[in-house]
Amino acid sequence: MAVTTIGAGLSLWRNVRVQRFVVQAVFAAALAAFGYYLFTQARELDLGFDFLNGRAGFNISNQVWTNYDSNDLRRELYIAGVVNTVRIAGVGIALATLLGLVAGVARLSGNWLLSRLALVYVETARNIPLLVQIVFWYIAVLLQLPRLADSMTAFDMAFLSVRGLALPWVQTENGFGLWLIFLTVAAVAAVAVRQWRGKREERTGQPSYPNWVALGTFVAIALVGFAIAGGPLSPDRPEIGERGFRYDGGLFISAEFTALLLALVTYTGAFIAEIVRGSIQAVPKGQTEASAALGLNPFQRLNLVILPQALRIMIPPLTSQYLNLTKNSSLAVAIAFPELVGVSRTIMNNTGQTIPMFVIVMATYLLMSLIISLVMNTLHRRTTLVEH
Amino acid sequence: MATIVRTSPTPILRRARRWAKDNLFGSVGNTLLTVVTSAILGFVLYQILRFVFITAEWEVIETNRRLLFIGRFPAGEEWRFWPTIFVASALAGLTWGLWSRLEWQAAMILAAALVPVFAFFAHGELALLTAAAVALAVLGYGLAQLWLTGSGYSAAARQLVMVGWVITFPLTIFMLLAFGGVDPSLWGGFYLNILLAVVGIVVSFPLGVLLALGRTSSYPVLRVASTAYIELIRGVPLITILLMTWLVLPIFLPSIAVPVLAPEGLDDMELTYRVMVALVLFSAAYVAEAVRGGLQAVPRGQIEAAQALGMGTFSVLAFIILPQALRAVIPALVGQFISLFKDTSLIFIVGSTDLLKAGRAITQGQIEFSSQEKEVLLFVALVFWVVAFSMSRLSQRLERTMGVGER
Q1: What pLDDT, on a 0 to 100 scale, did the predictor assign at position B157?
Q2: Which of A76, B181, B293, B382 is paired with B393 by a 20 to 30 Å CA distance?
Q3: Lowest mean pLDDT among B46-55, B174-183, B271-280
Q4: What homologous superfamily does CATH list for A74-168+242-385?
Q5: Which residues neighbour A278 within 8 Å (Cβ) at sequence distance 6 or greater?
């Protein structure tokens, strides 16, 4: 064997190739044995995914975009749970980013009071466990609100009660589909116009306001389309239902969703604020001074010079915060908001199929992590290109 | 400017006015910002103060302090806590004094939060014992600052303190289980949160080091397996792992009886231990990523030099790579400990009586306090905050004093 000739003069045990082979073989064998053990233990169980096609037998609240009930299949209710996770994660990521950006910039403000206030917020929010915050908002704040029939209200337009928040919203009318087509056209036109004005600015040096012109184009086409489609949206005001059980009309946001959102946004916002602060501080001070010397005002300095450079540093840690927020939304189980873990728990209880259900839940989370990572990595690549 | 200061020291009032002008009222925008901020701040502060000193009824905390801090731990067994607490506070004082200096600002904030709480809730024997623990911490800090730091003994003292920390962990477990012992299902309250976080980080540390070595290893089988484990765990929320150890683990474990840990057989392990398993499995992946960062920070030349000296793979690892890598990783590990500590509140979901669950149990089970949700939850938040905040300050300090570049 080649191995022995190379290692001639040395004992077999000291030979690097032998070591490599033996260590890996032993490890692989141990893993295989462990896997086989798990398999033998699981063999007696009835494992399979057929139970997902059974009648659910339970209903979940907080359904948006989906409308399943207890007669629908388990997998359909699971999808409704996934939709809830996506919904809370999407809204949460957007709001947490906004809050983090504001708090992070405020932390660096020259105004002593404002920067201290931001510091107090950050140190408070990130040092209290998220679950404690969720439970606090839900139990100690939202559940102390008046009954639905005695809702607090602002000008009879918005209502707040123990059940949740009802906001004025819009209702779609006939012709909404037509308007959607107009909106798509408007978006395409806006992108094209933005590129054209941007090129023009680069070529001629004349200020061409690509963003404003693009926005104007979009609004103009959207408005024309709105008129042509015959006004496909109408205002939809919420009101307290007849027997005081529910709100009719409007946009309803349940107390569970609100509590979860409040806690997730304040918690993650504090971490994002620290990331924003660190990234801004990582931009060389000379950049600020140079842009000040060029006569840019503080807002322009931040918006045109500092933030674009800070963004590049910010994106990788921001990605991990987005992933954290998505995973943390599973704490909703504590306040019975039916997101994917909550729905899975109910399915597990009803069917006893814990193991397949865990496999599905884990796969779902991994898939979501993958999607967020992909989006953020693409963004990262595009912002790094700006440097050239 | 400097000459003026030297000839006639600026009066404090003028200095204050100058500071206010620079920091609060520099321009119209800045003044506006100050006014708006103070309005918000004033409102929030007023609400908080009014609640804390007027509306709130803190009796609920005083009555239930035992439940909050030690859960359903049997009466008459409290002596089991104090040796650990004393040793830990002395060590904490020494650690602060040896590795960093107390930040007065942070210390004042902590004292402001803790002294009134202490004065209100601790009476009699408890007050004495707590005061003794605090005194030990201060003594340790003073000893370290006054005599040890900068003297010839500081390196030896640091090693001793580290050994002390390592011993504290088995001491804690020993005190809970020895001399008749207390059933783990009765461990609870805030003590359980701390215990779980410590067990989690201590036990997951060696696992994390192994995983990190596996992930950076040149052996493909080890690399793939470690990477798969780390990424799988980091990709799913802790709660799924907690639920799995709660519901699935008993199915897969054999019914072999293990003394102390599982006398009824592994498949019938106490929930408290199963929660520990979950936290360890979870934390190991994050520790591994922190350690991997440290491993990558060790210059390649160090390894090559060691190999050139004829050191074997194991010696290079144990004497060259790990000592340097792990030192660089300490701040990240403290950060991981804080996050694990906050995560221990999740055991509330599987039904262990931690601080949060104890708080919920008060308002759910005691009819006279059923409307004191706000008081209880704010107190729970305060307790978590005090520990997490002081640890995070420590980790920031360590980052500055132990940074790889500045060593």
Answers
A1: 77
A2: B293
A3: B174-183
A4: MetI-like (1.10.3720.10)
A5: A313
